[in-house]
Write a structure and sequence with these properties.
The structure holds three protein chains of three kinds. By secondary structure, chain A is an alpha/beta fold. Chain A has helices spanning 15-30, 51-57, 89-100, 104-112, 150-159, 173-179, 189-192, 220-225, 228-262, 275-299, 302-324, and strands spanning 2-6, 36-40, 62-64, 82-86, 115-122, 126-130, 144-147, 163-165, 184-188, 203-206, 209-211, 213-219, 269-272. Chain A contains eleven helices and 13 strands. In chain A, strand 7 (144-147), helix 5 (150-159) and strand 8 (163-165) form a beta-alpha-beta unit. Chain B has one domain. Helix content of chain B is 71%, strand content 0%. In chain B, helix 1 (4-43) packs antiparallel against helix 5 (137-159) and helix 2 (51-64) packs parallel to helix 5. The chains are: A alpha/beta, B mainly alpha, C mainly alpha.
Chain lengths: 331, 181, 444
Amino acid sequence: RTLNYATPAPPTERPSNDVLRWWAEEVERRTDGSIEIKIHWLQSLIKFKDAARGIQSGIADIGPMSPEYTMAQNPLLAMSQTELGSGDNYVASEAWRRATDDFEPIEQEAARNGLKPIGFYSSGVRVNMSTTRPYLTPDDFKGDKVRLTPRAVSAAAANDWDLTSVNITFTDLYSGMERGTIDGAQSYLYLMAPYKHNEVAKYVVETGIGQSLVPVMMNARVWGSLSAKEKQVIQELEPVFNEKMAKAGLEEAEIAKNLLKTHPKYTVDYHVLTDEQRQLWEQHFAPAIDEYVADMAKRDPAASELHQRFLSQLQAVEQEVREQGYPWDRN
Amino acid sequence: MARLSESIPRAISAVDRQVVRFSQLLLAMMVVVTFLSVVGRTFFSQAVPDDLLISEMLMVAVVFLPMGYLQSLGGHLEVTVITDHLPEKVQSALVTVGLVLGVVFFGLMTWLSARMAWESWEFGVIAYASALDLPEWPAKALIPLGLAWWCVRMLVQLVFPSSRPGHTSEFDQALDETNGY
Amino acid sequence: MDPTTIGIWATIGMITMLLLRIPIAVVLVATGYTGLVLVMASRGDGFDLAQGLMTANSFLGDLPYSSTAEYTFTTIPMFLLMGYLATEAGFTRDIYQTARMWLGRMPGGLAVASSVGCALFAAISGSSLATAAAMGRMAVPEMLARGYDKGLATGVVAASGTLGSLIPPSILMILYAVFTDQSIAAMFVAGVIPGLLSLLIYVAMVMIRARLNPALAPPTPKVSWQDKFGSLKSTWGMLLLIVVVVSGLYSGLFTPSEAGAIGASIAFLISLFARRLDRKKTSNALLETLKSTSMLFAAVIGAYMVTSFTALTGIAADLTSWAGGFDVHPAVVIASLSVLYIFLGTFMGSIEIMLLTLPIVIPIVKGLEYDLIWFGIIMIKYLEIGLISPPVGINCFILKAVVNDSVRLGDIFRGVSWFIVMDIVTIAILVAFPEIVTFLPDLM
Ligand code: NA
Ligand code: NA
């Protein structure tokens, strides 16, 4: 039996794709070939923004989805999208695992949507990229035209940031930065290399805060139709998949960072925020986040509690990693 | 029957004119939104919030609302290279088959997209990344409206073949072509 | 039934229905829906119709919104509107008047002018569809009015419209660069010379054909130099429009996706300023834009459905591995890939073909150690042929949409057939001399 896995990623050789391929082979091996995973790359089966519905309806059997596109249907899962706390791939996904472990409402929500979560990974750290000057604090915007993430738009309004918020499509980002339609944009470190944004950005600031969590979902009916053994294989692989994905994400961030710093033609001026700078951004973001959580709590009251659980786990796991390193580095 | 075959298509065309006028207005808005946004961000440090989203939603309207009007003009794309050589009766039968299939499949799409619009309203879905918290349902509701209106037009053409737009035959075209000489 | 068999039967059914004058929008939705029901129903053991219907229904319900509410698509009506406004205001008539005075004695002069116009427009727009749409509106009526052959008049614009994706900026190039991990900038630079080469070959072909058979493109009477220079005065409107849009785009005032709306605004303002636009003409331009957009997207929605269904059948993947699977000389592999792309291009859209075949084709190309930028340009050239090849040639449909009843689809396909042959010549040249593609990006 072949299960279709739909991903927005291009089929390049990179650590996270290697993990996905490994997972697909491992499922096949451990089920003695009773399940075969066919990967459909780069939105060729379903568009990423329609992923949740595509999996729900069965066009794809499995695939990553972004909770942001379907917030009304999954207000709890939407809590996994952070602006506060560490954006480290491992910290975020491990914190989310602990926050949702035995948290009944989130399982009910997935079941209501006809989905069965079988793993998750994090986008990793956000970056501020720009052509004028590094955006180390909100004061650095100095009237620039900037492409902001949705909640940064509210933060900008609440704190009166000196900038013009410009909406352009992700596809136009490259030429927009090149030609000065925008002076800067918020993005993710892992996107910079594949989309060549280092060719047009002069300054990159690794903010260290905020990330997007990407749950991998399976169609609930397909899940229900699996044999006990097949279910067991997929469940056993979940923690391994999550950890490998976190590690791969960190490797990709490292590769991207190296590329940005040492590219023969397109090097950027690379900055990492200090703790004080990070706290300043977090303070500015706080009112926008409160509003966001309150909105989601209107749809499901459990959202507030989940948000608190996740935030405290983010701090706990970050502390742990600071003291003991990542699990694969521990003895 | 003879009177109905004239009055019904005429009544539908009257509604069509208003639908088209509304669509023209929305299309003009699409231009204005982008224009204001570009001028605003360049000279006044202020773009139209949710400009891309508004354009996307207007796009939906611009695509679906005129479909019925287009049907009345015989404007939907079809390949007539081979059928032009067939007798009039066969051609007319093929057009009927096309109308039946059209009503079936786009009728189904009307019903299913209406269900989606309803769901969107029920859940209070906010458009992705909307700064103004724009609801998604109005744009989604225009789809079944436009499609349903198209289906009504196809049904009328099915029931009253006299209301079908004339297809220019090869003979007429040949006559046209000699006009220039 | 296995998915490949369903895919083959669906393809046969689709082509049959198209030829029997069933509207294209209906054919695509009917094929995609039925195919999806069958594939989903026969996935497990036995035939589960309820399952097939459930998946296909859910997909069909989401489809109209997800396949139209996309910002990049708004460029199509916006560029169309720009073209219609410029036409209603008479600017296009003026510029063709001038072109006729200057190029009228040249064999096929107006067709040559249209081809060059498409190349200029291509540098503004990222899409072949937008180029064909806007230029079709401006150029074709003028050529028809001067007694040009219908096939030539529409064919030259449908084919030259494909330069939209070959001359940067280009949405297809961005997609390819992302997919294959190449630099977008290098990809853009690589497209310039092949784009100009295609243009040159088109122009040469048009001139030779017009020289051999003057009835195709009746020459105009001789014009004095004084009149020639005098006619330049009336071109200011179009020139201003082009200058504002191109300079605004390259200076970053607006993005390629916004260029259409800005172009339409500028066209409107210039016409208003020149007192060449009234309520009725503006309303006409809006109405024509609505008709063309609605017509086109009725088919696009169906194409999306067919694409998802085709991806599930794996038929494109099967064909690609078949084409690449021969253990023979690399040239034969490239030749068989050509056949494959030209075949897929007859009935599928460019982006869809690219998404479906790249995952299998790229490893083959890497294995042969070909330059990926070079292959990208060759592939885009293939996809551009698909845009004009029958029975589903979107650029030809656009031309049909734009000229309405005055030209039959069959005439347009007859007209582009000459250009398809020229495209094959261009590809042969690019394959024989890869440096034509690679030397500019290598300079970077
Ligand atoms: Na272009
Ligand atoms: Na084609």
